[in-house]
Amino acid sequence: MLPKAYDPQGTEDRIYAMWEKSGAFTASFDTPSASLRATQDDTRKEPFTISMPPPNATGQLHLGHAVMLALEDIFIRFARMRGKEALWVPGTDHAAIATENVVIKQLKDSGMKDPRKELGREKLVMEIAKFVEQSKNTIRSQIRKMGSSCDWSRERYTFEPALNRCVNEVFKKMYEEGLIYRGHRIVNWDPKLQTTVSDDEVVYKEEKSPFYTFTYGPFEIATARPETKFGDKYVVMHPDDERYKKYKHGETFEAEWINGKVRATIIKDEAIDPAFGTGVMTITPWHDHTDFEIAERHKLDKEQIIGFDGKLLPIAGEFAGMPIEAARPLIVEKLKSKNLLVKTDENYVHNKATSQRGGGAIEPQIKLQWFIDVNKKAVPWSSKLLGIIPWKKTMSLKEVMQTVVRDGSIEIIPERFEKTYFHWIDNLRDWCISRQIWWGHRVPVYYCSKCVGIQGSACEVESGKWKVKDGEIVSVENIHCCPICQSELEQDPDTLDTWFSSAMWTWSTLVDPAATKDMSLSLAEILKRSPDFQKFHPTSVMETGYDILFFWVARMILMTTYATGQIPFKTVYLHGLIRTRDGRKMSKSDPSTMIDPLDMIAKYGADALRLSMIVGQSPGNDSKLYEEKIAGYRNFVNKLWNASRFVLMQCEERGIDPHTINDIDEYDGSLTCEAMLSSLQELVKDVTLGLENYSLSEVGERIYSFIWDYYCDWCLELSKEQFDPNALIFTHRIILKLLHPYCPFVTEELWEKIKASNAKDLIEQDWPKYNPKFLNQDAQRDLQFVIDIISAIRKIRSEYNIDVSTKIDVLIEIDDLHFSVVREHYSSQIYRMAKVKNLYRKGALESVDIEKIDEKKKVTVVLREGVVVHVPLEGIIDVAQEKERLTKEKEQLAKFLGGVQAKLRNTDFVKNAPAEVLEKEREKEEEAKGKLQKIEEKLGHIV
Questions:
Q1: Are strands 472-474 and 445-447 parallel, antiparallel or unpaired?
Q2: By three-state DSSP, how is residue 264 classified?
Q3: Can you give the pLDDT at residue 457?
Q4: Nearest to 599 by CA among 631, 632, 623
Q5: pLDDT at residue 819 tops 60
Q6: Which phi and psi (to 5°) does residue 86 adopt?
Q7: Is 456 helix (H, G, I), strand (E, B) or coil?
Q8: Helices (H), 656-774
Q9: Angular region, 366: left φ>0, alpha ψ -120 to 50, beta rest
Q10: Among 776, 643, 795, 790, which Cα is nearest to 719's?
Q11: Which of 552, 518, 443 is nearest to 170 (CA)?
Q12: What separation in angstroms does the CA of 469 have from each of 62, 450, 643, 812?
């Protein structure tokens, strides 16, 4: 017998250990011996693959991870139960900048002043690697706590040797084909961390700052950053701006400026927004991405104003060496003293770029870095858009990224994010892939000082091909001597952007590590010798947050299509952000907004947390999460537990062993059973279709409603008078199977108590199949009719505070067809479940005449045309007491409504309140009006 209450803390770890030991998570490829579960039949299974977005190896599980794990586990369990070879590859990311920062901070806290100088590169990298290895176990255990059924035998790490080989192979291939180059281009520079950072690591914070307008020769220019203007010698305007039509492109003029007179040149460029400021701007190509592109188009000079330490350079004259914030007001004051300050707008609001990792301001800089050319046509690609029989066309990386989504090879859910995706790809710049840190994949380039000037030299050695160009050597393996002159080499000090390696995640994780150890193999040969890659790539679905659609998903498409000739995944499913009850974004800086998923699991169980994050969360939309919501789903889990306990107790009382029930060849044929089994088939059909279409929230709601509102509240309750073990055990098993992807722990635990004696664990069960032989729409309709009658009576009892022990008379206006259902099947249940004393049908008894009952003395509920339920109140309730209660409630509600309406009549409140606040107040008003109307109706029945 089941315990009285479900204990997730005493169940979940045990269940997870059982799953792992059984090999249920382990997928097989075409070699049967490769898996604990492999059989000859396994090799024929359709693959279904998910690459887990790798959390930081040093990180802690947060709600973003938790919702990702819950969603992907639902996908993978559903696929596994449908007979697919389901592979979910887990792993962690070395998270270059974040991890290095954590370890350096720890070393400083332990007493080191400058860990880089004191340890040197090799020892610091060893310290970080040791820290990461110790931290990996933390994130592994947290992933297990969520019930994630991933294949731990295939766990990967972005910085492991096999993946490093893939990184170096792709770098070399891109370099040789001219897609990777080294050049001076503008980058996001973090002066605090002293490294470039990627676009996704730039956080834009809204800031109010002064906006200055200055005289610049014959023009007025506006800027929030006068400290960047020392080298300004170009003034730019839109070619179609009528205000400046008389000025010609290339025309020069003299202007008095910060440190004296300058000779300026007029440039006409369509990048200028005529509506912004005065429509004229001077440009600072070294410190602004847009200005840099203008300078590139027109071949203009570029001059550095701010150093890499964030301080002004000698070009700033007396301000040289000053930090930006200190220099700015002094520069403005100097321009003002020259009568060049026209006006200052103190209320200018703009987005300031800051570093997500370091927290400081981002300072765009031109720097010699490694880049990927996204516009060079170098990728042979076939597209469905090229004709009925696609042929290969040479495209740029950008064009391939556009094509695979445009031709439907990759589907984005929800579809509206395709527009966002294309906007980002259409405006894609060359990707800066180098970072000035020590932790990460080091740029596989070596420099020979003696070979500088040797053009296009190349030689071939046993370990692979080398390409030497101006003393620059790219090598897949570590080398120390120049292959041309045998001189000692110096490796490039930079590391690669973390996204460079994680962009290969879907396929590099499927590469056979043994094949990567053979340095004679090319990347294409390594992929051919990797059974997992051959079986499981492209992956089926990539599930991640919409906020990294561009920074990771797009880069995976770029890197995978180029390196493998395949798309990385067929479907992209984007989840939204988890927000607080009032819609705020959760932030570590505000602990009151945070929910720790591990705390919630300890308190309510993983199943409850999973449901609370999935139900109500539609793709691409933010959702709200709060502890009461999680507690509510804990109640649902307990409801299922109690329902199982009831069924098992009924079996025990009748001496029936549920393990001996194998199928449902026979059942009692009662109307309840017929309706229940018919509704169950509709549930199977709806849930299957919903999961196929990734409608996870809707499916969760459908299962929840069926179990709680239909199965537990009605089918089980009605079965008390006519218990059919075959039908109930069959239904219960189907319910556990359908719910298993959402609530794996409690369903597995219950399955053990109710499964057939020869059945496997629930995780290995086949998905239920829709069986039309059980459909009986008439039975469903008749049962629903009885449910409606009982519900109507219960509602009346509740609304009029009729004591639960008081039995009442009920009069029903009903046709012959419906009356036969009530009389033949459910009259006793209506008496019992609705606490009915006498159930009359209009005209059935002479002593009861519905027409003579005062309308004000009875409550009437119209269920449908021809079916009406009446409950006389006279003698049932204490009229005076009920009238007093309702009158008091009416007065309180009227007072509340008056306060809300007073707010909404206040013009200042309506003008200044946020839209969401106004909407809530209007909702309160409508809700209060509705409640008042109901109270008025109730008072009308008892006066």
A1: antiparallel
A2: strand
A3: 52
A4: 631
A5: yes
A6: -90, 120
A7: coil
A8: 671-692, 696-705, 717-719, 725-739, 744-754
A9: beta
A10: 643
A11: 443
A12: 47, 12, 74, 95
Say which residue, 401 or 863, is predicted with more confidence: 401
Domain locations along the chain: 198-356, 608-775, 781-877, 880-942
**Angle made by CA atoms 802, 808, 813, in degrees to the nearest 5:** 115
Residues in the chain: 943
pLDDT at 577: 85
**pLDDT value at position 40?**
41
Letter for the amino acid at 642?
N
pLDDT at 936 over 50: yes
Residue 851 confidence (pLDDT) above 70: no
Asked if 169 and 559 touch (Cβ cutoff 8 Å), the reply is: no
Q: In 10 A of CB 643, how many CB atoms?
A: 21
How far is the C-alpha of 691 from the C-alpha of 616, rounded, in Å?
15
Name the CATH superfamily housing domain 608-775. Answer: Isoleucyl-tRNA Synthetase; Domain 1 (1.10.730.10)
Token digits for 126? Answer: 């060893």
Q: What is the pLDDT of residue 518?
A: 93
pLDDT of residue 798: 83
Smallest CA-to-CA distance from 329 within 226, 215, 228 is with 226
The CATH label, of 1.10.287, 1.10.3470, 3.40.630, 3.40.50, for the domain at 880-942 is 1.10.287
From the candidate CATH numbers 3.90.740.10, 3.40.109.10, 3.40.190.10, 2.40.30.10, the one assigned to the domain spanning 198-356: 3.90.740.10
Helix axes 627-653 and 744-754, enclosed angle (nearest 10): 0
Rounded CA gap, 835 and 824, in Å?
19
With a cut of 90, say whether residue 135 has pLDDT above it: no
Amino acid at 901: Q
Q: If phi over 0 gives left and psi between -120 and 50 gives alpha, with beta otherwise, what is residue 582?
A: alpha
pLDDT at 533: 96
Tell me the pLDDT of the chain averaged across its residues.
Answer: 88
**How far is it, in rounded angstroms, from Cα 852 to Cα 855?**
9
pLDDT of 579-637, one tens digit each?
A: 888 777 776 666 777 789 999 999 999 999 999 999 988 888 888 899 999 999 999 99
Distances (CA, A) of 553 to 89, 205, 360, 651: 17, 24, 27, 52
Pick left, alpha or beta for residue 470 (phi over 0 → left; psi -120 to 50 → alpha; otherwise beta): left
Find, among 876, 867, 888, the residue nearest to 935 by Cα: 888
Q: Around Cβ 762, how many Cβ atoms within 10 Å?
A: 25
Asked if 858 and 872 count as a contact pair (C-beta separation under 8 A), the reply is yes
Give the contacts of 594 (CB within 8 A, at least 6 positions apart): 586, 587, 588
Work out the number of other CB atoms within 10 angstroms of the CB of residue 875: 10
Task: Please give the pLDDT value at position 847.
Answer: 39
Evaluate if residue 390 carries a pLDDT over 70: no
Q: CB under 8 Å to 455, separation ≥6 — which residues?
A: 469, 470
In a 3-state reduction of DSSP, which class is residue 256? strand
Say how far apart CA 258 and CA 331 lie, in whole Å.
8
What is the C-alpha R_g of the chain? 35
Q: Tell me: the pLDDT tens digits for 634-686?
A: 999 999 999 999 999 999 999 999 999 987 766 667 888 999 999 999 999 99
φ and ψ at 304, to 5 degrees?
-80, 130
Q: What does the pLDDT read at residue 144?
A: 96
DSSP 539-595: EEEEEEEGGGIIIIIHHHHHHHHHHHSS-SEEEEEEE--EE-TTSPBPBTTBGGG--
Structure tokens, 530: 């990797």
The sign of the dihedral angle between the CA atoms of 692, 693, 694, 696 is negative
